[in-house]
Amino acid sequence: MRIHFxxxxxxxxxxxxxxxxxxxxxxxxxxxxxxxxxxxxxxxxLPKEEQIGSCSVSGRKCCRKKK
Length: 67
Hints:
Elements: H1 2-15, H2 23-35, E1 39-41, E2 49-54, E3 61-65
Antiparallel strand pairs: 1-3, 2-3
């Protein structure tokens, strides 16, 4: 019976999300950026673009062409 508890605990640890990797939040922010006609930039927006939001918790920026 102890082996079942140990296996369950190990399975739980491996399936737990990594801290700082907000998978669902990142996906929603990325989708919202695409809906607003933007793109996700890794470092920053290009000179002819403006920042309209963020694409992830880690700091990617959502950019689109200036109007």
